[in-house]
Amino acid sequence: MAKIKNVDGLRKLAKKLNNWGKWGPNDELGTLNYVTPQAIAKAAALVKKGKVFNLGIELNMNGPQRHGISRRFNPIHVMFHSGADTIAGTSPTGWGGADDMIAMATQGGSHWDALCHVHAEGGKMWNGYDARLCSGQGAEKNGIEKYGNKLIGRGVLLDIARYKNKAMLEPGYEITSEELDAVVAWAKVKVETGDFLLLRTGKMEIALERVKRGESWGDFAAGDEAGLGIETAEWLQNKKVAAIATDNWGVEVRPNATPDMNQPWHRIVLPHMGLLMGENLNLKELAQDCDEDKLYEFLFVAPPLLITGGAGTPINPYAVK
Description:
By secondary structure, the protein is α/β, with parallel strands linked by helices. 24% of the residues lie in helices and 18% in strands. It has helices spanning 7-17, 37-44, 83-88, 160-163, 177-186, 203-212, 232-239, 264-273, 284-293; strands spanning 52-54, 76-81, 99-103, 111-113, 134-135, 138-139, 152-159, 174-175, 196-200, 227-228, 243-246, 276-279, 297-301, 312-314, 318-320. The strands form four sheets. A nine-stranded mixed β-sheet has the order 1-15-13-7-9-11-12-4-14, sandwiched between helices. Strand 11, helix 8 and strand 12 form a beta-alpha-beta unit. Helix 1 packs parallel to helix 8 (264-273). The longest helix is centred in the N-terminal third of the chain and has 11 residues, at 7-17. It is globular, with a radius of gyration of 20 Å.
């Protein structure tokens, strides 16, 4: 496939990969339709050791979002009933407790993007729904709550960083369809219909190491990063995967290959293909274990918060082997 470097090329690819109507005129699930009861049962049989890997990052004010880059902000956690109230004797019985709240952008940490998150030209969302159905009151169509019982199945780790023998892929490194094929062959695994692909670039774990040393996240949010090239959208379409999630900020390579369009890969996969995507996962421990036992498949569980009309949701995904 010829390289796509402008909006005209994107329009042609969007038309080629458009799945509107594939699962009927009222569909709001997109590629999650590939997740069948049979696929889930088959994935559950992959659990042999009972070993669980937590793939999410902690939610706190020291998160990856940068002020001024977007409207997203790091989670704000507040106790509105705490041990101080107990000690102060606010309860006449002397008993006490704690309650708290959290305010956050739904895509501020490890998260899924809903299919209403990105809109196509002509003011349309996934499956041709009018973008005006996504209002200040929430999304009437393609909201994150629609995926409540679908985000479970066979997970496959594509460890690009380890395949390249690097701690982290260089910022700006474009992962191609040919390289995805090479990593699949290297891992001796087959990508199957309904799979959840987890792509490791090494970026999250390097960032977390910096934070642990007391340094900042730097340009993790919206900075240059290794990621998928635009043309990989067709590879994912042909493989019939349910979703893809990564350990970087935006899945796709940055700087973007199209100077006249920000995040072009998003513009294809969400509104046209209906492919669910996740970002900001921590794949370090899972990748280490896969390298040790050479098994790159597992049960993947990542349910959304049921935010009515939500454009995204925080998640704490599990890989179970």
